[in-house]
Amino acid sequence: MTFDFLCGTIIFMSFTEDFSAYENCVPPGVRLPKIEIEARHYDRLELDRKTSNYDFLRALCLDGVKEKKIDKKKNSKAYYARVRTELKILKELGFIDYILLNWDILHFCQESDIPTGPGRGSAAGSLVLFLIGVTQVDPIKYDLFFERFVSKSRAKKIEKDGVTFLDGSLLADVDNDIAYERRTEVIEYIKRKHPDRTCKILTLNTLSGKLCIKECGKIVGIYSEQEVNEVSDTIPKKYGKVLPLTQARRESEQFREWVDDNEEVFDVARKLEGLNKNTGVHPSGIAISHYKLDEICPLQQTNDGELVSGYDMNWIAELMVKFDILGLRTLSVIYDVCKQLDFDMDTVSLEDKNIYKNLREDFRHSQGLFQIEAFTNFNVCKKVGPKNLEQLSAVVAIARPGALEFTDRYVEYAKSGESQSVNEFFNDILEYTGGIPLYQEQLMQMAVKVGFTLDEAEQLRRIIGKKKVSEMPKWKNKIEKKIKDNNLSEEIGDVLWRVAEDSANYSFNKSHSIAYATLAAWTTYLKFNYPREFFLSLLKMTKFEPAPHEEISKITTELPFFGIELLPPDLGRSDMDFKIEDGNIRYGLNSIKGVSQKTLQALKDFRESDKPTKYDIFISAKQAGINIGVLSALIQAGALNAYKVKRARLALEAQSFNLLTDREKRNFIQLAERFNYDVLKTIDSATKGQLLADDNRRLMSDSRFETFKKKYSKYKEIWEKNRIYEDFANWFFEKKLLGYSYSVKLKSVFSDDKPLMNSYEVEAAENNERVYMVGVVEDCFKRQSRNGNRYAKLDISDELGFVNGILLDTARQKKLTEYLEENDNKLPKKENVVYIEGRKGDGTIFLDKISIYDDKIYMKLSDLK
């Protein structure tokens, strides 16, 4: 090296000559983990223990052929030919052990009675996976392609020193849905099978353009939160994704105008956009390595001590096998319902028209229906009115941002049966989706029809779908040549290319769509045939939801329409979890807010103590370790209604009794019958000096009462405030602690000279009809429409359902502005109880008036501060 003192820098000459290349730094690809097959599996299949893994997989397939009675099918030869082809390709590509790794995990689930899904992603296109029980979707029946799952052209096998490696970025993916609450068991099994070789996968979260504009707008541009929110709302989405800032500037006139006046903010935001923000853990990904983890990958630990890779998912795919083990609550619900009924879902034909009838005739109740219950999916399903599994699959495929624009076109086809032709040559392929190339598999079929192989068709789909710009001109030329070679019209080639380009933004994987439509059909069958058991399972699963009481609230809005009542919690009758009781469902004690898992055993001991009087209840609760907050929650939720005392007063009695000394409690119990077990009356008499204790001294001296009163007065203040609005207090406590109200309907609390409507009546109202309702704010936010009008959107619920309303500024009326000016620039908040009135519109209410019911109900001492 030489030193350049004039420049003050050090110039390194021939720097790399000081180093030598490090050989074998990383393996050339993914080496599959060693698969160990238990001896009993060879014995069951009558195979020699030295049988190759290929022959073992082949034997599993033959076993599946017998079990599924493939030989009885009229087209059995198609199955035999397909499975031979798939096995041959899997062997050629070195994928046999990968398939067996998946079989091993799913077989463990089946033997352990752990529910698994019918399939997810392109794996449902494999007949081999269907025959060995990894998936439950027949790919031949639904015209699904193996090549969509495994493509010879894009898979890559590398041989080095006699060892086979695979290109991880091109390795086939088998994603598995597992019952949510038992996912941990599956992961523990994988760890046992592959010790020191499994870990969770790191994720890198980046700064979005929208977030950068908001934060830079506040810091660099010194704008308010409200102002930057309005600016960020002008950044458009395309196919459900927010556009990058540079593209957003080109495509949104409103955003461009703002950027032109705020170039500095935009420049800083652009530099930050896409940078790593923080790390996380992949929610379902598990990596399995052939080598010990510390030999191939940096590692870190979560707070729970779980190992996480130091590389993100893309790099992990180059070194290890990645499995997606996704916990799905729907599977737990299906399994639990079937267990209650001793019922086998395999006995249900997915061709049963009665399943789909429930999704057509006056379809209103979507709670718990897989891939249907979300607002957008529900609306698509309601419009389509699917008649079979294929149409239900189309609902799953259409109810996504990219494909939503085809809803009306598909609805027209579903109702009339008339398909719109893009070209007569392709009618047989596109006819069953109304002429819409809805599925990626349809594009592949179109390519095959003009002369390409299925493997080539998958290449076309992948190149167009991944928008590989450098490859696209080559494929356009290939299509033109193929059309010419096969003497087809140029128009056919043009249609194929146009469909390939356009459908890349919205077409869906049919294998995945059929698999998830199967789950949707199963949940539909169970809900409408066995609603009591179905809703019970949904309620039991709410404890695993991020917001359990919100889910309970949604479920209870549907129960009346199925003739089911959710009975309130009762210390004498309730179990820890929800249960069926006399044709209805009894609320589970462990779902009362404030009753933590830690106190469940104490509560169980307390329940079993069989103490009938109020005082016995208070003492037993204390002995069982149940604090006064939990006991108050139980009282306020109505769990002690058997004592025929108003809840607010009973809570005050419990709180007062808790403040007594042991001496005072002992004497209160002795005086119980004299004062009819009334704590407050006993205290009143004791403070007047009228009562002597068992030691012949005053039961409560003046100084002692002053000490007692310091804490008691706060509890009494809560009682005095709440008893003014007794009905509303009961509604409030039930809603807050249980997620629903069983003793009083919200609209009955309010008196108004206009007739109040419930959400069901609002939904049934005609457009332009005046509506009046009282409900709870579930969500409220302010936005700006594309034409520049500001609006606030409110989602409001009551006991029967949900409605949404809009407070809108237009050129003629400034409803939102007027409301904000009258209310200190504040909108209603989540959980506010509001009175609304307005004009019914198409799917919404155009609001004229919002009043917040602000008489506060107090739950605990901190509320008084």
Key structural traits:
five-stranded mixed beta barrel; single chain; disordered N terminus; alpha+beta; Arc Repressor Mutant, subunit A; 43% helix; 5 domains
Explain the overall architecture:
Helix content is 43%, strand content 14%. The protein has 865 residues and is α+β, with helices and mostly antiparallel strands. It has 5 domains: 39-160, no CATH class; 203-329, Orthogonal Bundle (Arc Repressor Mutant, subunit A), CATH 1.10.10; 348-504 and 515-525, no CATH class; 561-738, no CATH class; 747-863, Nucleic acid-binding proteins (OB fold (Dihydrolipoamide Acetyltransferase, E2P)). A 6-stranded mixed beta sheet has the order 5-12-9-6-11-10. It has a 5-stranded mixed barrel with strand order 16-17-18-20-19. Strands 13-15-14 form a 3-stranded mixed beta sheet, covered by helices on one side. Mean pLDDT is 89; it is low at 1-10.
